[in-house]
Design a protein that fits this description.
Layout lengths: L7 H24 L2 H21 L8 H25 L19 H8 L4 H7 L4 H12 L4 H8 L3 H18 L7 H16 L3 H7 E10 L9 E2 L1 H15 L4 E7 L2 E8 L2 E10 L6 E7 L12 H4 L11
Parallel strand pairs: 1-6
Antiparallel strand pairs: 1-2, 3-4, 4-5, 5-6
Helix pairs in contact: 1-2, 1-3, 1-4, 2-3, 3-7, 6-8, 7-8, 9-10, 10-11
Length: about 325
Protein backbone atom coordinates (compact mmCIF):
# COMPACT_ATOMS: atom_id res chain seq x y z
CA UNK A 1 0.00 0.00 0.00
CA UNK A 2 1.48 3.37 -0.99
CA UNK A 3 1.80 6.20 1.51
CA UNK A 4 -0.46 9.20 1.38
CA UNK A 5 1.53 12.42 0.57
CA UNK A 6 0.55 13.76 4.00
CA UNK A 7 1.78 10.73 5.89
CA UNK A 8 4.87 8.56 6.25
CA UNK A 9 8.41 9.47 5.32
CA UNK A 10 7.48 11.39 2.18
CA UNK A 11 5.00 13.58 4.01
CA UNK A 12 7.41 14.09 6.91
CA UNK A 13 10.14 15.18 4.51
CA UNK A 14 7.80 17.71 2.88
CA UNK A 15 6.95 19.21 6.27
CA UNK A 16 10.63 19.30 7.27
CA UNK A 17 11.68 21.05 4.06
CA UNK A 18 8.96 23.63 4.61
CA UNK A 19 10.50 24.57 7.97
CA UNK A 20 14.18 23.97 7.17
CA UNK A 21 15.22 27.61 6.89
CA UNK A 22 13.66 28.47 10.24
CA UNK A 23 15.46 25.53 11.84
CA UNK A 24 18.74 26.49 10.15
CA UNK A 25 18.54 30.07 11.40
CA UNK A 26 17.77 29.06 14.99
CA UNK A 27 20.47 26.39 15.19
CA UNK A 28 23.14 28.50 13.47
CA UNK A 29 22.56 31.31 15.96
CA UNK A 30 22.93 28.78 18.77
CA UNK A 31 26.17 27.23 17.42
CA UNK A 32 27.86 29.79 15.15
CA UNK A 33 28.91 27.05 12.73
CA UNK A 34 27.39 26.19 9.36
CA UNK A 35 28.90 22.69 9.39
CA UNK A 36 27.54 21.89 12.87
CA UNK A 37 24.18 23.36 11.91
CA UNK A 38 23.96 21.10 8.87
CA UNK A 39 24.77 18.09 11.08
CA UNK A 40 22.09 19.08 13.60
CA UNK A 41 19.51 19.48 10.84
CA UNK A 42 20.40 16.01 9.56
CA UNK A 43 19.85 14.61 13.07
CA UNK A 44 16.59 16.55 13.30
CA UNK A 45 15.35 15.14 10.01
CA UNK A 46 16.21 11.59 11.12
CA UNK A 47 14.37 12.08 14.42
CA UNK A 48 11.39 13.62 12.66
CA UNK A 49 11.05 10.97 9.95
CA UNK A 50 11.59 8.25 12.53
CA UNK A 51 8.65 9.67 14.46
CA UNK A 52 6.57 9.69 11.27
CA UNK A 53 7.15 5.97 10.67
CA UNK A 54 5.88 5.12 14.16
CA UNK A 55 2.63 7.11 14.15
CA UNK A 56 0.61 9.40 11.85
CA UNK A 57 1.74 13.02 11.46
CA UNK A 58 -1.86 14.10 12.00
CA UNK A 59 -1.36 13.35 15.70
CA UNK A 60 1.11 16.25 15.94
CA UNK A 61 -0.96 19.38 16.41
CA UNK A 62 1.86 21.84 15.67
CA UNK A 63 4.63 20.38 13.46
CA UNK A 64 6.57 23.66 13.48
CA UNK A 65 6.82 23.71 17.28
CA UNK A 66 7.64 20.00 17.33
CA UNK A 67 10.49 20.44 14.82
CA UNK A 68 11.89 23.48 16.66
CA UNK A 69 11.94 21.47 19.88
CA UNK A 70 13.81 18.58 18.21
CA UNK A 71 16.32 20.93 16.54
CA UNK A 72 17.00 23.00 19.66
CA UNK A 73 17.61 19.94 21.80
CA UNK A 74 19.92 18.40 19.20
CA UNK A 75 21.76 21.75 19.08
CA UNK A 76 22.11 21.80 22.87
CA UNK A 77 23.59 18.31 22.72
CA UNK A 78 25.98 19.36 19.92
CA UNK A 79 27.06 22.41 21.93
CA UNK A 80 29.20 20.25 24.21
CA UNK A 81 31.29 19.05 21.25
CA UNK A 82 31.63 22.62 19.95
CA UNK A 83 32.87 23.76 23.36
CA UNK A 84 35.46 20.96 23.50
CA UNK A 85 36.80 21.99 20.08
CA UNK A 86 37.08 25.59 21.19
CA UNK A 87 39.14 24.61 24.24
CA UNK A 88 41.90 23.29 21.97
CA UNK A 89 41.53 25.91 19.22
CA UNK A 90 44.71 27.83 18.33
CA UNK A 91 44.33 31.62 18.52
CA UNK A 92 41.16 33.70 18.59
CA UNK A 93 37.98 31.82 17.66
CA UNK A 94 35.32 33.48 15.51
CA UNK A 95 31.98 32.10 14.31
CA UNK A 96 31.76 30.71 10.80
CA UNK A 97 30.66 33.57 8.51
CA UNK A 98 27.24 33.24 6.93
CA UNK A 99 26.89 35.05 3.62
CA UNK A 100 23.43 36.42 2.89
CA UNK A 101 22.46 34.60 -0.29
CA UNK A 102 19.07 33.67 -1.72
CA UNK A 103 18.40 30.06 -0.74
CA UNK A 104 15.24 29.62 -2.79
CA UNK A 105 12.62 31.59 -4.67
CA UNK A 106 10.63 31.94 -1.45
CA UNK A 107 11.07 35.43 0.04
CA UNK A 108 10.21 34.03 3.48
CA UNK A 109 13.23 31.72 3.21
CA UNK A 110 15.50 34.66 2.45
CA UNK A 111 14.05 36.63 5.35
CA UNK A 112 14.67 33.78 7.79
CA UNK A 113 18.28 33.33 6.69
CA UNK A 114 18.84 37.10 7.04
CA UNK A 115 17.65 36.98 10.67
CA UNK A 116 20.97 35.49 11.75
CA UNK A 117 22.60 37.90 14.18
CA UNK A 118 25.77 39.81 13.39
CA UNK A 119 29.21 38.25 13.71
CA UNK A 120 29.98 40.62 16.58
CA UNK A 121 26.83 39.54 18.41
CA UNK A 122 27.68 35.86 17.89
CA UNK A 123 31.02 36.50 19.59
CA UNK A 124 29.15 37.91 22.60
CA UNK A 125 26.71 34.98 22.62
CA UNK A 126 29.65 32.60 23.00
CA UNK A 127 30.00 33.80 26.60
CA UNK A 128 26.49 32.62 27.53
CA UNK A 129 25.65 29.17 28.84
CA UNK A 130 24.04 26.88 26.23
CA UNK A 131 20.58 27.28 27.80
CA UNK A 132 20.95 31.06 28.13
CA UNK A 133 21.94 31.26 24.49
CA UNK A 134 19.03 29.09 23.36
CA UNK A 135 16.57 31.24 25.31
CA UNK A 136 18.13 34.49 24.04
CA UNK A 137 18.03 33.36 20.41
CA UNK A 138 14.45 32.09 20.59
CA UNK A 139 13.17 35.13 22.51
CA UNK A 140 15.22 38.08 21.25
CA UNK A 141 15.85 37.01 17.66
CA UNK A 142 12.75 34.99 16.78
CA UNK A 143 10.19 36.42 19.17
CA UNK A 144 9.18 33.23 20.99
CA UNK A 145 7.25 33.82 24.21
CA UNK A 146 8.67 32.48 27.48
CA UNK A 147 5.86 29.92 27.70
CA UNK A 148 6.69 28.62 24.20
CA UNK A 149 10.39 28.39 25.05
CA UNK A 150 9.54 26.49 28.23
CA UNK A 151 7.94 23.77 26.10
CA UNK A 152 10.95 23.69 23.76
CA UNK A 153 13.66 23.24 26.42
CA UNK A 154 11.49 21.46 28.99
CA UNK A 155 11.84 24.09 31.71
CA UNK A 156 9.24 26.04 33.68
CA UNK A 157 8.23 29.51 32.39
CA UNK A 158 9.74 31.08 35.53
CA UNK A 159 13.07 29.34 34.87
CA UNK A 160 12.97 30.58 31.27
CA UNK A 161 12.32 34.15 32.43
CA UNK A 162 15.35 33.96 34.71
CA UNK A 163 17.51 32.61 31.89
CA UNK A 164 16.25 35.35 29.57
CA UNK A 165 16.95 38.07 32.14
CA UNK A 166 20.53 36.88 32.76
CA UNK A 167 21.25 36.49 29.06
CA UNK A 168 19.79 39.89 28.13
CA UNK A 169 21.68 41.70 30.89
CA UNK A 170 24.95 40.03 29.92
CA UNK A 171 24.55 40.76 26.20
CA UNK A 172 23.47 44.37 26.66
CA UNK A 173 26.43 45.02 28.98
CA UNK A 174 28.88 43.85 26.32
CA UNK A 175 27.06 44.88 23.16
CA UNK A 176 25.61 48.42 22.87
CA UNK A 177 22.21 48.59 21.23
CA UNK A 178 23.49 50.55 18.25
CA UNK A 179 23.46 49.72 14.58
CA UNK A 180 24.84 52.10 11.98
CA UNK A 181 22.82 52.97 8.89
CA UNK A 182 23.65 50.57 6.00
CA UNK A 183 25.07 53.40 3.87
CA UNK A 184 27.36 54.46 6.72
CA UNK A 185 28.50 50.86 7.24
CA UNK A 186 29.17 50.39 3.54
CA UNK A 187 31.22 53.59 3.27
CA UNK A 188 33.25 52.75 6.40
CA UNK A 189 33.81 49.19 5.20
CA UNK A 190 35.13 50.34 1.83
CA UNK A 191 37.40 52.96 3.44
CA UNK A 192 38.82 50.40 5.85
CA UNK A 193 39.40 47.72 3.20
CA UNK A 194 41.14 50.18 0.86
CA UNK A 195 43.46 51.27 3.66
CA UNK A 196 44.09 47.79 5.10
CA UNK A 197 44.75 45.95 1.85
CA UNK A 198 46.67 48.94 0.49
CA UNK A 199 48.97 48.96 3.52
CA UNK A 200 48.15 52.66 4.13
CA UNK A 201 49.00 53.26 7.80
CA UNK A 202 47.99 56.94 7.73
CA UNK A 203 44.54 56.09 6.36
CA UNK A 204 44.17 53.27 8.89
CA UNK A 205 44.97 55.64 11.74
CA UNK A 206 42.12 57.87 10.55
CA UNK A 207 39.49 55.15 10.25
CA UNK A 208 40.40 53.06 13.31
CA UNK A 209 39.09 54.03 16.76
CA UNK A 210 41.79 54.53 19.44
CA UNK A 211 40.67 51.42 21.33
CA UNK A 212 40.04 49.24 18.26
CA UNK A 213 40.41 45.46 18.56
CA UNK A 214 41.34 43.20 15.65
CA UNK A 215 40.29 39.56 15.89
CA UNK A 216 41.97 37.25 13.38
CA UNK A 217 40.75 33.66 13.13
CA UNK A 218 43.25 31.78 11.00
CA UNK A 219 43.24 28.44 12.79
CA UNK A 220 46.67 26.93 13.33
CA UNK A 221 48.49 29.95 11.82
CA UNK A 222 46.76 32.56 13.99
CA UNK A 223 48.25 34.88 16.55
CA UNK A 224 47.43 33.80 20.07
CA UNK A 225 45.51 36.94 21.08
CA UNK A 226 43.43 39.73 19.55
CA UNK A 227 45.35 42.94 18.83
CA UNK A 228 44.21 45.95 20.87
CA UNK A 229 44.86 49.63 20.19
CA UNK A 230 45.02 51.73 17.03
CA UNK A 231 48.83 51.87 16.68
CA UNK A 232 49.34 48.11 17.00
CA UNK A 233 46.31 47.32 14.83
CA UNK A 234 47.37 49.69 12.03
CA UNK A 235 50.92 48.32 11.96
CA UNK A 236 49.70 44.74 12.03
CA UNK A 237 47.17 45.27 9.22
CA UNK A 238 49.58 47.25 7.04
CA UNK A 239 52.38 44.74 7.54
CA UNK A 240 50.07 41.86 6.82
CA UNK A 241 48.98 43.45 3.54
CA UNK A 242 52.58 44.03 2.52
CA UNK A 243 53.55 40.43 3.26
CA UNK A 244 50.74 39.06 1.12
CA UNK A 245 52.26 40.37 -2.11
CA UNK A 246 49.36 38.92 -4.12
CA UNK A 247 46.51 40.41 -6.09
CA UNK A 248 43.35 40.01 -4.08
CA UNK A 249 39.85 40.33 -5.49
CA UNK A 250 37.38 41.99 -3.11
CA UNK A 251 33.66 41.46 -3.23
CA UNK A 252 31.45 43.57 -1.01
CA UNK A 253 28.78 41.26 0.33
CA UNK A 254 26.47 41.07 3.32
CA UNK A 255 27.78 38.70 5.97
CA UNK A 256 25.51 37.87 8.92
CA UNK A 257 23.37 40.84 7.92
CA UNK A 258 26.21 43.40 7.81
CA UNK A 259 28.02 45.00 4.89
CA UNK A 260 31.38 43.25 4.75
CA UNK A 261 34.27 42.38 2.46
CA UNK A 262 34.85 38.90 1.05
CA UNK A 263 38.37 38.54 -0.30
CA UNK A 264 39.35 35.98 -2.93
CA UNK A 265 42.80 34.88 -3.99
CA UNK A 266 42.28 33.57 -7.48
CA UNK A 267 39.20 31.38 -7.40
CA UNK A 268 39.50 30.51 -3.71
CA UNK A 269 38.09 32.42 -0.74
CA UNK A 270 40.91 33.99 1.25
CA UNK A 271 39.21 36.03 3.97
CA UNK A 272 35.96 37.45 5.26
CA UNK A 273 36.36 40.87 6.89
CA UNK A 274 33.61 42.30 9.07
CA UNK A 275 33.80 45.70 10.75
CA UNK A 276 31.97 47.05 13.79
CA UNK A 277 31.60 50.83 14.09
CA UNK A 278 31.66 53.30 16.96
CA UNK A 279 28.28 54.82 17.97
CA UNK A 280 29.14 57.91 15.91
CA UNK A 281 29.56 55.66 12.88
CA UNK A 282 32.74 57.35 11.71
CA UNK A 283 35.39 54.90 12.96
CA UNK A 284 35.96 51.17 13.20
CA UNK A 285 35.81 49.83 16.76
CA UNK A 286 36.30 46.12 16.04
CA UNK A 287 37.59 44.15 13.07
CA UNK A 288 36.77 40.46 12.61
CA UNK A 289 38.89 38.65 10.01
CA UNK A 290 38.27 34.99 9.25
CA UNK A 291 40.95 33.32 7.11
CA UNK A 292 40.73 29.75 8.44
CA UNK A 293 40.05 27.73 5.26
CA UNK A 294 37.83 25.30 7.16
CA UNK A 295 35.47 28.17 7.99
CA UNK A 296 35.35 29.45 4.40
CA UNK A 297 34.24 26.25 2.68
CA UNK A 298 30.71 27.67 2.22
CA UNK A 299 31.99 30.92 0.69
CA UNK A 300 31.58 30.82 -3.08
CA UNK A 301 32.81 33.15 -5.77
CA UNK A 302 29.35 33.85 -7.09
CA UNK A 303 29.65 36.27 -9.97
CA UNK A 304 25.98 37.21 -9.82
CA UNK A 305 26.21 38.08 -6.11
CA UNK A 306 29.51 39.88 -6.67
CA UNK A 307 28.16 41.94 -9.56
CA UNK A 308 26.44 44.45 -7.27
CA UNK A 309 29.60 45.47 -5.46
CA UNK A 310 32.04 44.26 -8.08
CA UNK A 311 35.72 43.72 -7.57
CA UNK A 312 37.55 46.57 -5.90
CA UNK A 313 39.70 48.70 -8.16
CA UNK A 314 43.38 48.19 -7.54
CA UNK A 315 42.75 45.50 -4.98
CA UNK A 316 46.26 44.19 -5.22
CA UNK A 317 48.11 44.17 -1.91
Amino acid sequence: MSESPATGTEGATQVFVGHRELLFAIVYNMLGSVADTDDVLQDTWLSWTGRATRSPLEEIGNPRAYLVRIAVNHALARRAAVTRRRETYVGPWLPEPLLDEPVSDDSADRTLRAESVSLAMLVVLESLTPLERAVFVLNEVFGYAHTEIADVIDRSPSAVRQLAHRARAHVHARRPLYRAHPRVRQAATERFVAAALGGDIAALMEILAPDVTVWTDAGATAGLRPVHGRDKAARMLAGYATRRGAHLDIRYRRVNGDDSAVVFEGASPYAVMVMDLTPEGDRVSDVYIVTNPEKLTHVRRDEECGAEGGPAEGAGA
